[in-house]
Amino acid sequence: MLYLKTLIIVVQLLSALGVIGLVLLQHGKGADMGAAFGSGASGSLFGATGSANFLSRTTAVLAAVFFVTTLTLTYLGAYRAKPSAGVLGATATAPVVASAASAPAGGSGALAASAASVPATDVPK
């Protein structure tokens, strides 16, 4: 499970860096900052409008990958195994106080049962 989480974190990190880089390379509406990086040339590999279309599609794919990895990591981080309820459908609990009927018939058993129900008076406050 640890290897799976590590792999998903690496994919998420790479997709986040890819989205950041692609957003910085794209043209804005009136800002020619993308031309400073060489993506404004009309004789480029994708043509005048092909690079904008390619960059926007690639950004959308990487954003979708980032979104899916984020949801996957959230699911894996919130998953907690629940204890089994057992055959009867309820978890077994230990009795808190022993009853007087289960004490031995001698006088010391009755004394122990009555002493257990009385709070201690010698405890400092």
From TrEMBL:
It is found in: Cell membrane. Residues 102-125 are annotated as: Disordered. It is a multi-pass membrane protein. The keyword Disulfide bond does not apply. GO terms for molecular function: protein-transporting ATPase activity. GO terms for biological process: intracellular protein transmembrane transport; protein secretion; protein transport by the Sec complex. Its main location: membrane. GO terms for cellular component: plasma membrane. Pfam families: SecG. It comes from the Bacteria. Keywords: Cell membrane, Membrane, Protein transport, Translocation, Transmembrane, Transmembrane helix, Transport. Belongs to the SecG family. Involved in protein export. Participates in an early event of protein translocation. This is Protein-export membrane protein SecG. The lineage of its organism: Bacteria, Pseudomonadati, Pseudomonadota, Betaproteobacteria, Burkholderiales.
